[in-house]
Design a protein that fits this description.
Rossmann fold; 11-stranded antiparallel sheet; 5-stranded mixed sheet; Tumour Suppressor Smad4; 6 helices
Length: 259
């Protein structure tokens, strides 16, 4: 089986990941990432997201098997399985993830595009409350949302910042997006919305010079924005691999029943 799989080992620079990966280096005939069918990424969720973004930037799409040597990250597999790495990858369940595509226009007119695996968030830059117009599929759905900001999350990202902001958890395969306000002031009781991932979401910053707003696609920030357009990208679909019984879908279910 080892000769059938072309695996590349990609390891975070952290001491913990480098130390833990030592036993893996001699356990398989690894290939260069450019020649691999699948990437085995060692580190945490942040490093795995970094690797996914690197592939999006290069126009490459290869399955990714995340391995966390320690506490299991939400997007990672644990290291407590005695099976060989090739067995684990061969038996893993595949999960498709559609990243968000963010098109931002700044106050100076600059056009910036970034992708997000988890979420795109709009955040106030100063003590002034952000004021946003919310537009869905070209129709104004909310003339003014006032608060610290708002975010749009994918199912994979719905248990991250979105959950901390009291947004809904979305099962994988639901074909939905979470639109969640961040500390809303007006409308005070608005909890957000669940949208089909075919929807195009747009935010226009009101009083942008007085109330500057930044847009963040995962870790990529664009400041002093005027307008942001967000949609799910089918062309950039990614594949994550999970051990049987520990799929991302199972983890999403488990999050909803924690007490």
């Amino acid at each position: 089986m080892g000769g059938e799989l072309k695996l590349a080992l990609v390891v975070s620079d952290s001491d913990k990941a480098q130390s833990g990966a030592q036993r893996l280096r001699g356990s398989f005939d690894w290939v260069d990432p450019a020649d691999a069918d699948t990437l085995v990424v060692v580190g945490g969720d942040g490093f795995l997201l970094y690797c996914l973004h690197e592939m999006i930037g290069r126009g490459v799409s290869k399955p990714v098997y995340g391995l966390h040597l320690g506490t299991v990250g939400f997007l990672m597999n644990g290291s407590d399985d005695a099976s060989t790495i090739e067995q684990r990858v061969a038996n893993a369940h595949r999960v498709s993830v559609r990243p968000l595509e963010m098109h931002a226009t700044t106050q100076s007119g600059e056009q910036v595009c970034h992708h997000a695996i988890n979420e795109v968030s709009l955040l106030r830059q100063t003590r002034q409350t952000a004021k946003l117009e919310v537009i869905i599929n070209g129709r104004v759905r909310m003339a003014e949302l006032a608060g610290d900001g708002v975010l749009v999350a994918t199912p994979a990202g719905s248990t991250a910042y979105n959950l901390s902001a009291n947004g809904p958890i979305l099962p994988l395969g639901s074909g939905m997006l979470a639109l969640t306000p961040i500390s809303p002031f007006r409308p005070r009781r608005w909890r957000g919305a669940i949208l089909p991932d075919s929807a195009e979401v747009e935010f226009r910053v009101l009083e942008s010079e007085k109330r500057p707003v930044a847009a963040v696609a995962d870790q990529k920030e664009v400041r002093d924005i005027e307008r942001v357009r967000i949609k799910a990208s089918r062309e950039k679909e990614m594949t994550l691999l999970f051990d049987p019984g520990a799929s991302l879908e199972e983890r999403i279910f488990s999050e909803q029943f924690q007490v």
